[in-house]
User: Which sequence fits this backbone?
């Protein structure tokens, strides 16, 4: 049994029950009263995703900062960015988050409407095919995220009007975990588009795709913390900090494999060899 274009109403009911359950859990826990139950389903999903993104961003970023700038500071020897720089990043990210929430809401809506190749149970395809599809999904994301990011640099008006907002933080001393989601809202949505396109092209386990989308919030926190893990081919902060300082290296997202393939890798030991 494959994905929803061939699967009929049962899948669509399961997707909808799943997203209703997410809304019940989060909105039920965070909002007073039950006025939100009267909202149309897509608006309720958007509201839940907006609150979810805020929660994820604040909890992850504040905890991350507490660990690297306070609790384990002696281990990481990180220079602490000014409070002013971090405040700006928090404001830029906070303004954009209701717009970012349109991405998971759109992904859910597409699956619930039967437009995607999403499947619901891993047993529908079996574990071996689940892993094959997951690998294809991640390769597609890495390819798509690399090229969208590279294009937002190479198409100059897009860089100037959108992506430059994220590149105000162009030195180690101004980058912090809070920069992870500090984008112009349109840029943030553009950078996430491969997440929307992937389930239209590939069999995708619905719940896994939602988890991956939200884990982006944790991943982008990690690659902006300036801690140079440098584990090839993972796109750690060592590589992504170079992206912020040279603007023409390391456009990749989870790894530098696409940079390696398309000739844009910048190695930390070359760029930071002054240390
Ligand atoms: Zn960039
Ligand atoms: Zn960045």
Assistant:
């Amino acid at each position: 049994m494959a994905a929803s274009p061939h699967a009929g109403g049962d899948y669509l009911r399961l997707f909808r029950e799943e997203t209703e359950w997410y809304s019940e859990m989060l909105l039920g826990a965070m909002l007073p009263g039950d006025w939100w139950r009267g909202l149309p389903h897509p608006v309720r999903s958007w509201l839940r995703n907006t609150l979810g993104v805020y929660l994820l961003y604040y909890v992850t970023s504040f905890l991350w900062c507490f660990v690297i700038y306070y609790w384990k500071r002696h281990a990481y020897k990180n220079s602490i960015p000014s409070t002013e720089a971090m405040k700006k990043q928090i404001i830029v990210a906070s303004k954009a988050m209701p717009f970012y929430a349109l991405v998971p809401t759109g992904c859910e809506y597409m699956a619930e409407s039967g437009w995607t190749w999403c499947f619901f149970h891993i047993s529908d395809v079996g574990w071996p095919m689940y892993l094959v599809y997951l690998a294809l999904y991640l390769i597609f994301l890495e390819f798509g995220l690399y090229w969208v990011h590279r294009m937002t640099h190479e198409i100059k008006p897009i860089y100037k009007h959108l992506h430059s907002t994220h590149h105000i933080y162009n030195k180690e001393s101004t980058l912090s975990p809070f920069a992870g989601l500090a984008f112009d809202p349109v840029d943030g949505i553009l950078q996430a588009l491969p997440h929307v396109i992937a389930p239209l092209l590939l069999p995708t386990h619905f719940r896994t795709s939602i988890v991956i989308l939200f884990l982006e919030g944790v991943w982008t926190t990690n690659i902006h913390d300036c801690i140079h893990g440098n584990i090839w081919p993972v796109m750690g902060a060592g590589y992504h900090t170079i992206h912020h300082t040279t603007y023409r290296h390391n456009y990749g997202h989870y790894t530098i494999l696409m940079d390696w393939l398309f000739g844009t890798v910048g190695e930390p030991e070359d760029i930071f060899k002054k240390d």
